[in-house]
């Protein structure tokens, strides 16, 4: 089974519905050759889109990916690579950062993108996202940075992450955006009602979903909500002959905004579960049974 591909915006790129998130790559304790093998196995499952950020792995994840790609440079042509910028962490790797803060200045965006390219050993990013909304965000300055990167051939497309609909609209009034990467899961359903997914559907852009399994908590959360959700997942998984994780991801994937789901696991078995979710179709009663389990009530 392979995950399908999807054009994420009317003039946007084609990405795989399951995206390989690499924010934990530094924790996987893999050699460069093992990282390369993992990427190749993901590609065999149809996962061609990789999600990075400059800060991932305490500023180390992009370089780890670069080491793997250097072993097989031809692999780059089969991949779509996403990265993010705009957060400055306090870190031994960034000794000039006195406090953790946001920076969406033109200079920082351009420098971050260029550093990402250098660390990964590639010439162009398929997509660059502003990682978090910045209270000091100047939409004109960000647009200027984006135009500079696009015109120099360093970034193809742009988007945002964790933006509210109003924040998205502000930046989109200056430059086309192809996605908003947001959190959504059966333990975090706020985007169903806060306008984020409505906006994506209105603009015909596919959101990228992070923490679709609540960062792994969904399978072991001991709260009343977590227990209710797992009981509902177990019932539906038995009906469908699927795993509970696959059903939970299918619940997210079924939204009409056509989300892409990030998986952050370094285990190929977990990747296969995510791919299997793309073939699961929940009927409305099953979908709402999970919604009700999470909400702790029936629909009004």
TrEMBL record:
GO annotation, cellular component aspect: cytosol
Superkingdom of source: Bacteria
GO molecular function: oxidoreductase activity
The entry's keywords: NADP, Oxidoreductase
Keyword Iron-sulfur among UniProt keywords: no
Pfam families assigned: Aldo_ket_red
Residue intervals of the NADP-dependent oxidoreductase domain: 17-287
UniProt keyword Oxidoreductase present: yes
Membership in a protein family: Belongs to the aldo/keto reductase family. Aldo/keto reductase 2 subfamily.
UniProt name for this protein: Oxidoreductase
């Amino acid at each position: 089974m392979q995950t399908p591909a999807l054009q994420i915006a009317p003039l946007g790129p084609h990405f795989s519905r399951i995206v390989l998130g690499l924010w934990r790559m530094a924790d996987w304790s893999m050699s460069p050759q093992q990282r390369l093998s993992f990427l190749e196995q993901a590609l065999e499952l149809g996962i061609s889109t990789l999600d990075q950020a400059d800060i991932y792995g305490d500023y180390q994840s992009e370089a780890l990916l670069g080491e793997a790609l250097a072993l097989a440079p031809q692999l780059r042509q089969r991949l779509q690579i996403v990265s993010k910028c705009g957060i400055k962490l306090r870190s031994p790797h960034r000794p000039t950062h006195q406090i953790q803060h946001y920076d969406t200045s033109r200079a920082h965006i351009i420098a971050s993108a260029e550093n990402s390219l250098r660390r990964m050993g590639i010439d162009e990013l398929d997509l660059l996202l502003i990682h978090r909304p910045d209270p000091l965000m100047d939409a004109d300055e960000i647009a200027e940075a984006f135009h500079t990167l696009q015109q120099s051939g360093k970034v193809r497309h742009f988007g945002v992450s964790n933006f509210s609909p109003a924040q998205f609209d502000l930046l989109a009034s200056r430059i086309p955006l192809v996605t908003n990467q947001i959190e959504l899961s059966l333990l975090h359903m706020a985007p169903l009602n806060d306008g984020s997914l409505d906006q994506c559907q209105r603009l015909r852009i596919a959101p990228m979903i992070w923490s679709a399994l609540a960062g792994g908590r969904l399978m072991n959360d001991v709260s009343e909500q977590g227990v209710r959700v797992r009981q509902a997942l177990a019932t539906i998984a038995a009906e469908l002959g699927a795993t509970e994780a696959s059903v939970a991801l299918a619940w997210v994937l079924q939204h009409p905004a056509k989300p892409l789901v990030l998986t952050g696991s370094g285990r190929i078995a977990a990747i296969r579960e995510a791919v299997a979710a793309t073939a699961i179709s929940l009927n409305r009663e099953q979908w709402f049974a999970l919604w009700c389990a999470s909400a702790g009530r029936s629909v009004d």
